[in-house]
Predict the 3D structure of the following.
Amino acid sequence: MKTLTREDLAALAQKSPSEPAEWIRVQLDTGGIAAGAESLAQALEHVRVEQRLGFALLRTGSIGYSFADPVIEVKSAGLPRILYGNLAPELVPALLDGHVRTGHLLEDHVIATRNRGLTLAAPVTHILVRDTGGDSGNKTEFFQFSFQEELKRRGLDDRVQVVRALDMGIYDKGAVVQLLPDAVTYTNVLAPDVARIVSESIEGRKVLDDLIWQTPDKQVRIVLRHCGQVDPESADDYLQQAEGYQALAKVLFEMSPEQVLAEMKASSLRGRGGAGFPTWLKWQLTRAQPADQRYVICNGDEGDPGAFMDRSVLESDPHAVLEGMMIAAYAMGASQGYFYIRAEYPRAVDRIQRAIDQTRQLGLLGRNILGSGFNFDAKIRLGAGAFVCGEETALIASIEGKRGSPSPRPPYPSVRGLWGKPTAINNVETLAIVPAILLKGGAWYASHGTATSKGTKVFAVTGKVRNAQLVEVPMGTTLREIVFDVCGGVLNGKTVKAVQTGGPSGGVIPETLLDTAISYETLQELGSIMGSGGMLVMDQGDSMVDVAKFYLRFCVDESCGKCAPCRIGGYQLQQILDRISRGRGNAGDIAVINRICHAMQKASLCGLGQTAPNPVLSTLRYFGGEYQAYIEGGPSYARKISGAARAAAKPTAPSAVTQEVSS
């Protein structure tokens, strides 16, 4: 790699991205690799070399479709880009013989594009079909056969292929049909519509207004804009395909630190680690402190059970996070940065280290970057998996080589942080957004979201959901839209009972409140929090008492033990919940739980202890009838009524439990 100059970056900004004419991208993130992506890549390479095929084999990170891992994307001559999911190495010959050689797509593995068209400009080459009405009585094969017969009758069967799709991105809308390459999509297609679609849309290129799906995709990818699109191990790919380091060059040569802070203020970006503190204000407070050294830290110590937002971004777009850190450092006058990443994320660690090494070789990291006079370098420090080290002061202590336990605040890290110097700590998602804001403007970013919560938020949606995945939606999107419109609803057609947000520090939200628009304020009003972005979906078979026990046990295990409210209060709560779940509780336990929870919230030293009672309080608030059932009749009785009215968000009659909580 040669050292880049300002002129080199300017020249790259003027060039259109270029890529091979034919390629296959394999998504090699941790989730994909666990599902067999490395073996799939090896099989593709073996056949490519053996048969001397001309496509390029590329590496990328995750696009977010965890439900379909391993995922690949194929670009072949004369065809649009096609995503395939749930691929196994033994399917590689069929894929290459069909898609690459003859343009025939592989059945039951195509993931339909979410960039749906509204016009039919090009001749239709493929019809994707899937019955989204549910797994029982699935009519996908019926519609495939119907289209095939109609095409054959009209002499079009040799020009148009009908393919059963794995996923259409649209759910509970009957038979869904997508016409490629323009991706015009029809929903609620009935048998009589087949002939119309073939005659009017395929032969006549006329869009059927009564069938077309015009609803835009719920997702808006800003944080995830490069994920699944660039090679995370290649600085050249980031520079050439993703406007890499153009935002850094802009701030170094066209903006003062004060102007950067003003643009960040205009964006109204709030910290995506959970607290929601204004990012610009944190940077400004750090800059305002007189010091000979300031630090910026990226908090990649993602410890929430089921959360994988930060890991995916670090693995899929490491250069964007590094560029965001460098811009933050310039704005606050810092010259040293640290990535604090949990050691259980070896691929994320490896790719961030590779990004640091590559940018240092390119002259984008180190002294006098691009001849601007700005000096900055970055290092990695590994976390040992302690959940409490996600708290800022505990994280700082860990980097300093001390025991990772929180310290009283104030002083806040922006005043006295790492080694006593002013320090700004931002999480992975926050820093990944920064380059986009500086390139497109704070007003552009603030145009997404709500009046008080701007922009987008990434969520890792898991649990009893049909399509577990990483999603990014504008603030103001409802919980119901995420669960049903983006992720396909509840697994196995069951009824949703509640959604838990915010990880161990969050709370449960009942089905009756799923139409709540997501923002920092609305989730707090419901007794939960935004957190870093974990979202767990539960169905009617889940016990809310068991959910509260699970998260509380996690917090008890992860408590540093430094303060008594968290150390003792959490243990006492766990003992009481264990007793209730075994049918040995009494009505007086609820009053004790309530007092302990409020004591922990008011007196614990850090956020772990202050928010640990949230799952307990929220389950009591919305599902108090379940606690009452355990106390009155034990586990077997509670299981019988767990889906009944007493366990609903609004019990028909106030019980001792709900009266105690409300008091």
